[in-house]
Amino acid sequence: MDLSLSEEQQQLKDSLGRYLDKTYTFELRRQQLKSGTSVRDKHWQTFAEFGLLGIGMPEQFGGLGGSSNSAEETMVVMECFGRALVREPYLSTVVLCGSILRDYGTPEQCERLLPDMVAGGKFMALAVHERAGRYQFSHVATNALREGDAYTLNGGKSVTLHGDSADTLIVSARTAGKAGDESGISLFIVDKNTAGLTVRNYPTFDGHAVAEIGLKSVRVPVSALVGVENAGFEVVERAIGYGIAAMCAEAVGAMDALIEQTLEYLKTRKQFGVAIGTFQALQHRMVDMFIAAEQARSITLLATLKVNSADVNERRRAVAAAKSLVGQSARLVGQQAVQLHGGMGVTDELPISHYFKRLTAIDLAFGDAHYHRGRLGELLAAAG
Q1: Could you tell me if 135 and 128 are in contact, meaning their C-beta atoms sit under 8 angstroms apart?
Q2: How much of the chain, in percent, has pLDDT values that exceed 90?
């Protein structure tokens, strides 16, 4: 099996990498964070011009077509974003919400939302977390009551990634059963300006932003229902699996950048008149970082290849294995990079601390390494 990038994928990686190296500099990132600059900037429009917002999207809605390689192309994009510490809501808008609309949205929903998204004019966010649920997306206490030709939503969502900048939300709500049941969950499209919807934004420690979503007597038409009523859990799980594979690729890119910058530091930092990179103990630590990053790359590729598998259990095992191993590798690479830079490694002035924070956030998102290690064990035991 040839696991190398195709010519088109390599061209995408090279061109996007050059653009980010030239324009998405670390100093620009620091300025944005200090000033609170919105992610609605020229970079998002450039991503649209690159065709990044149309990866995997149907051509009739302005996309590049739902090719079988779209997951691999998403991996290429996210790896580049990880190297550059991109803050724009590509994961929430394109990977999560875009894939849900593409796979489960009605023609009318896709026609209303996807062309604008692909053109760079619409941000979206997936609101499925609840405070008491931790990593369990089946824990949905928010309820949706059908009244004639509309649903009324009441409840709230927590830690909604990029909910601060979203124009449209895809919200999970319970239409049957009780909190914790996988059945009885439905998904609804809710515009941000809908009466009764409140959004409280706050920054995360890695330079991104999340939001607390309040839903008080929020009325949406029946046409806002995504997919089949009471069958939303499978939709969410599939989208989250796709998002986890994408975040693993982002982590691989961030680890590559950390290793390169740490190696350069060891070559230039001198002690006792020689570069500290000549010390064998430090060389061994660099080797450990490299091996961990390569293991993460391999398991991420496996998850990428399996994320669209028709075998649900195979897909779940691949995603859980990737999230667990990538989380472990990210911690090792991040901690070693900080330590090898000494006290400077944790300062805001160096990129090292920013990469470390982002890798930590990636580990925590959608279930940390410990959680997915346990989940993988359960899946393997169930398979016999």
Answers
A1: no
A2: 84
7-122 adopts what CATH topology?
A: Butyryl-Coa Dehydrogenase, subunit A; domain 1 (1.10.540)
First to last CA, the chain: 28
pTM for the complete prediction? 0.95
Residues with Cβ within 8 Å of 234's Cβ and at least 6 positions away in sequence, in order, are: none
The residue type of 160 is T
Letter for the amino acid at 35?
S
Report d(CA 67, CA 58) in Å as an integer.
Answer: 9
Residue located via tokens 């594979």: 245
| Phi and psi torsions of 173, nearest 5° | -150, 155
Residue-level length of the chain: 384
What is the dihedral angle through the alpha carbons of 178, 183, 188, 194, rounded to the nearest 10 degrees? 0
Residue ranges covered by each domain of the chain: 7-122, 125-230, 233-383
Which tens digits make up the pLDDT trace of 344-357? 889 988 999 999 99
Residue 69: both structure tokens together: 């390689």
| % of the chain residues with pLDDT over 70 | 97
Give me the CATH code for the 125-230 domain, please: 2.40.110.10
Residue 11's pLDDT is what?
Answer: 94
**Are the C-beta atoms of 220 and 188 separated by less than 8 Å?**
yes
Residue 235, phi then psi, degrees to nearest 5: -65, -45
Q: List the alpha helices (DSSP H) in the chain.
A: 7-23, 26-35, 42-50, 70-84, 90, 99-104, 107-118, 232-268, 280-306, 312-340, 351-364, 369-383
User: Do the Cβ atoms of 165 and 41 come closer than 8 Å?
Assistant: no
DSSP state of 5: P
Kindly write down the DSSP assignment for every residue of 43-102, as one continuous string: HHHHHHHHTGGGTTS-GGGTSS---TTHHHHHHHHHHHHHHHT--SSHIIIIIIIIHHHH
Half-sphere exposure at residue 215, Cβ-oriented, CA atoms within 13 angstroms: 30
Q: How far apart are CA 303 and CA 318, in angstroms?
A: 5
CATH for 233-383, among 1.10.3210.10, 2.60.40.10, 1.20.140.10, 3.30.420.130? Answer: 1.20.140.10
